[in-house]
Amino acid sequence: MSIVADPHDIKKDKILESAYNRFLHYGYSKTTMNEIAGDVSMSKALLYYYFPDKSQLYIAVMRKLSTDYLKKLQAGVFSNLEEAFIFQINTQHDFIVTNYNFFDFFRLNEQNLPDDIWQIIGEIHQAEIELLKAAIIKEADAGIIRPVENPDAIADLLLDALHGVRVRSASQKKVFFPGKDQLEEIHEKRLLLVNIFVRGLMN
Amino acid sequence: MSIVADPHDIKKDKILESAYNRFLHYGYSKTTMNEIAGDVSMSKALLYYYFPDKSQLYIAVMRKLSTDYLKKLQAGVFSNLEEAFIFQINTQHDFIVTNYNFFDFFRLNEQNLPDDIWQIIGEIHQAEIELLKAAIIKEADAGIIRPVENPDAIADLLLDALHGVRVRSASQKKVFFPGKDQLEEIHEKRLLLVNIFVRGLMN
Questions:
Q1: What is the 3-state secondary structure (H, E, C) of B84-118?
Q2: pTM for the structure as a whole
Q3: Chain B residues lying within 8 Å of A115, measured CB to CB
């Protein structure tokens, strides 16, 4: 690996940064490839050379965001299981609040997300499992919680349960991606669930 | 109220029964109004007089099933909180396993269920909350679990969490209505979640 950055990578990074800012401030649908080409002083043809269409560009930004998110997750320090769970919930909550408009792509394509996005979601999910699993094993070894046969399954169960926590609308319909005004309420409910869940694992 | 049944009601009941059997054995999409009219020896015109279209007929059957389900729920007898939660999960599991093919309508219309169906789901949800709430209050009064400020919210939280328990497919996509082969695994996971959750509420 050379320490001199590849000029292609520098250009790509500039495109990703401009795209992120536009997606975040104007949303996916209101952002055009023309505007991004303008931001980075590049011909549209060259932009399309790097990213064949807007959705590919979106996926690349999403991948970068996900890498940052995973780094934050992995840098977490906590002294017990409940803190580990709370850290995971808070990190996710902050990530979604900060990038809320970026996710309008998810709302627009709720029923038909590209496979690449599902792959990124899968990677994040796996990293979350690893984090929680390590915390569960540590706590079980220390005798603070009951011995756990399958820490993976317990971590997965909690993540599923947290995922189920939604704010019900008047019509009972639940949407995959919550409204911005619902995030706080969901966050509170998840903290309560974690509190009960951790107590339930105790000796 | 007369004890002599209204002939209209008798006819309606016969239609609902035939429709239920056909929806259950052949699914919603493969059932025609013609076949149902044939089953009950009725002209198609008369059938349409009672039910203006197939989806209205489906909703009426769904309403009847839901009434039966609620009766089963309300007849439940249990001696503690975990039993109450398990009873609720088992009753729902049996209901879905028994009527699995009937719900192909849900799969077909996953993203666009009629409001009437959402209303029925809402009624069932409310009845489930009431059942669990009563069990929580009883157990808290008896000092078996910690005092609970808002038993409604705790019941709702558990139902949300249970709802989140899904079987992940290889692609990470989660479907609203699970495959028949996934029901047992989901059921097992829900029982585990209830076990942890109830322990977490204990003193």
A1: HHHHHHHHHHHHHHHCHHHHHHHHHCCCCCCHHHH
A2: 0.85
A3: 171
